[in-house]
């Protein structure tokens, strides 16, 4: 079976429970958004999947094979995050050559081309790069490594608006030409909303939502009206509908609903779409 299966993963650090019984599947050739606030468990999950940390419970398999201490499975995955795994005195151009040694599919010519596009000086030492250019360096590695599963942990950290837009455009371009599984872990929802196909929302180590972006948005909405009208409507909602938040201004009230059936509203109420960022904020602030 193609894909990465995460089964019943739990992880704690002393008194902190980072992940609680997480079960997920990352299917082949899809773009996922792993969305959560700072400290939600995103980085811990990606580190466990890529075998940089070990779970207290559960397991991970890659294409049906357990990944723990399995070099063949690990070579199919590539994770970028804030951690620099290269000697800080190493130059960027030399890091590209070293990457080719560990990942034979690494496209050094593409990495050099992207370096020009991002205006990354490949003669600089990695330690001398600014925060933004360290992110760019890592993103170039990820966009050139050519493995089936690539994990981007906060990939636009320190990037200006132009470079963030360039990164997302290049990611989509690469995916369109040679589909692979990309997992973008971020708390910056608005920028990835139109890039990702699948949404995974994590809060305090637990998965709140795991479904396609289109389905989660199609079945979520804002209902607005007077306080009494809205409260009456909410009381009549079916059990599958979940009110995830509300706002009150004067005598008017808005509620945010997941699982709305789209039935005709009583007169005086208004239904409007809810974007992914607003949905995320309401879900993770509860």
Major sheet: size, sense and barrel closure?
6 strands, mixed
H/E series:
EEEHEEHEHHHEHEHEEHEHEEEH
The geometry reads as: elongated
Say what oligomer this is: single chain
Query: Strand portion, in percent?
Result: 25-35%
CATH architecture of the largest domain: 3-Layer(aba) Sandwich
Number of strands: 14
Q: Which stretches of 5+ consecutive residues score pLDDT under 50?
A: none
Termini gap: 36 Å
How do the strands of the widest beta sheet line up side by side? 6-7-8-3-9-10
CATH superfamily of the largest domain: P-loop containing nucleotide triphosphate hydrolases
Give the C-level CATH assignment of the largest domain.
Alpha Beta
Tally of separate helices: 10
How much helix, percentage-wise, in residues? 25-40%
Q: Would you tell me the structural class of the helices and strands?
A: alpha/beta
Pfam families: ABC_tran
Protein name: ABC transporter ATP-binding protein
Domain ABC transporter: 4-229
Keywords: ATP-binding, Nucleotide-binding
Question: What would your notes on this structure say?
Answer:
It is a single chain. The chain is of the alpha/beta class. The protein folds into two domains: 4-212, 3-Layer(aba) Sandwich (Rossmann fold); 219-285. Helix content is 33%, strand content 30%. The chain contains ten helices and 14 strands. It has helices spanning 42-49, 71-74, 92-102, 108-118, 131-144, 161-177, 189-192, 213-218, 227-235, 276-285, and strands spanning 4-13, 16-26, 31-35, 57-62, 65-66, 77-80, 149-153, 181-186, 198-203, 206-212, 220-226, 242-249, 252-258, 270-272. The strands form three sheets. The protein has a six-stranded mixed beta sheet with strand order 6-7-8-3-9-10, with helices on both faces. The chain has a four-stranded antiparallel beta sheet with strand order 2-1-4-5, with helices on one face. Strands 12-13-11-14 form a four-stranded antiparallel beta sheet. β4 and β5 form a beta hairpin. α4 (108-118) runs antiparallel to α5 (131-144). It starts with a strand and ends with a helix. 36% of the residues are buried. The mean pLDDT is 94.
